[in-house]
């Protein structure tokens, strides 16, 4: 989201880069979007004062199927509410190139940064069809772009690795809520630890995709 309720500083700058990548001959081109109900647990306004300040406050969310498992999450302004224009792809995104749009964050009880699943494991509460879609198409490599580097991009990339995909994040095609050490820096460190590669839009990983569309 570039100029919405949960805008990321500099987010608009990545739109041309994302559109250029969408024109490349990837096997599949998939967008994801938050699609929250109005009473979603991540909205600061759904929590009592004084610990309900967007961007500043955090809360602990318990697994609704296993109260002994919990996850700490940041609280956000109301954003991407179902049935509103805020939940739609931005007009700058060339959606004609997309094969699928995966909706996430519909369950009001849990946060879901990843396009694959919520953060809980014992058991998971919500799992999207993304992994099935990719595996059905025999995809082996996943390239992740978008917003925000330290949240949705981060968790989606890590989960893509867990699903067995070689995973790249294109650094020019993402921005972080926190571009400093605690946001971008910690995310980059996690990528290094789990095997996600941070690559350039002009690097060999992208050039390999470009060659797929060239006649032999």
Average residue pLDDT: 95
Strand order of the largest sheet: 5-6-7
Largest sheet: 3 strands, parallel
The rounded Rg comes to 17 Å
The run of helices and strands is HEEEEHEHEHEH
Gross morphology = globular
Oligomeric state = single chain
- In DSSP terms (H or I, runs of 4 or more residues), the helix count works out at 5
Percentage of residues in helical conformation: 10-25%
Strand residues, percent: 15-25%
Provide a quick synopsis of the model.
The protein is α/β, with parallel strands linked by helices. 24% of the residues lie in helices and 21% in strands. The strands form three sheets. Strands 5-6-7 form a three-stranded parallel sheet.
3D architecture notes:
The strands form three sheets. A three-stranded parallel sheet has the order 5-6-7. A two-stranded parallel sheet has the order 1-4. The longest helix is centred in the last third of the chain and has 14 residues. Helices cover 24% and strands 21% of the residues. The protein starts with 14 loop residues before the first helix and ends with a helix.
Itemize the secondary structure elements and their pairings:
Layout: H1 15-22, E1 30-34, E2 58-63, E3 66-74, E4 100-104, H2 130-136, E5 141-147, H3 149-162, E6 166-175, H4 181-194, E7 197-199, H5 204-212
Parallel strand pairs: 1-4, 5-6, 6-7
Antiparallel strand pairs: 2-3
């Amino acid at each position: 989201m570039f100029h919405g309720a949960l805008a990321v500083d500099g987010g608009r700058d990545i739109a041309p880069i994302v559109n250029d990548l969408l024109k490349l001959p990837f096997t599949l081109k998939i967008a994801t979007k938050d699609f929250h109900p109005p009473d979603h647990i991540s909205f600061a306004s759904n929590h009592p004062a004084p610990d309900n300040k967007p961007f500043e406050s955090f809360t602990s969310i318990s697994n609704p199927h296993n109260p002994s498992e919990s996850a700490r999450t940041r609280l956000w302004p109301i954003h991407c509410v179902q049935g509103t224009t805020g939940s739609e792809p931005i007009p700058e995104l060339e959606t004609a190139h997309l094969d699928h749009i995966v909706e996430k964050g519909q369950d009001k009880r849990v946060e879901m940064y990843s396009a694959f699943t919520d953060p809980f494991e014992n058991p998971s509460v919500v799992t999207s069809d993304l992994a099935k879609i990719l595996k059905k198409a025999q995809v082996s490599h996943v390239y992740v772009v978008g917003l925000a580097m330290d949240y949705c991009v981060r968790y989606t990339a890590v989960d893509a690795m867990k699903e067995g995909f070689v995973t790249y994040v294109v650094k020019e095609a993402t921005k972080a809520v926190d571009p400093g050490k605690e946001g971008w820096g910690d995310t980059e460190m996690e990528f290094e630890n789990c095997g996600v590669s941070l690559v350039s839009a002009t690097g060999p990983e992208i050039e390999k995709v470009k060659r797929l569309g060239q006649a032999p």
